[in-house]
Write a structure and sequence with these properties.
The chain is α+β, with helices and mostly antiparallel strands and about 210 residues long. It is about 30% helix and about 30% strand. It has a seven-stranded antiparallel beta sheet, with helices on both faces. It has a three-stranded antiparallel beta sheet with strand order 8-10-9.
Amino acid sequence: MTGLSAGGLSWRGEDYAWHGQGWPELVIETPRLRLRAPAAADVDAFAAELADFDIVRMLARVPWPYSRMDAVSFVTGARADAEGRHGLHLVVEDGNGLAGLVGLSYSPVSLFAPAPELGYWIARSRWGHGIATEAGRGVLAFAFEALGAKAVRSGAFHDNPASLAVQAKLGFEVVGRSHVFCLARGAEVAHIDTMLTRGRFREVCA
């Protein structure tokens, strides 16, 4: 059905498709979006979109203020993560350009490792259009069908109901509460932990 071969990754379903020569060249296509690896040409767009504290304060590991050099470092690190299969970071593109970022990361210290963690942010101009849900579903399909993940973790800070609503649409269920350090706020913030199993994802997408 899918997998890595000499020809790379390739799969096509009713609504989603992916292709590439491995993680660094992976492209995921959804009905309205194209998800692909970050590039140097994205640096200015990243810096512009993440100059919005309302976005950054909801992310655990993004500094504030966010500079152009932060964006350069991120693009470089994203490539290294993909090559080492430590994480998968994908630019979300719609018909008007960069709409956000979505990805999977692995944490060896997590109680739920090796389940990957889904993360995302969406540009303010795209809020309310279902972009996070559609991009998340594309990455989750890849995680479950191509990577063979049995479960995917996620979550959100307690004051981010919009993100929790996205996760509920994707099928995630609350599995606990914790405190996570937010770099932009400079403090630990109450966090709602969620989990999605492969079976639950298939039920929701059926």
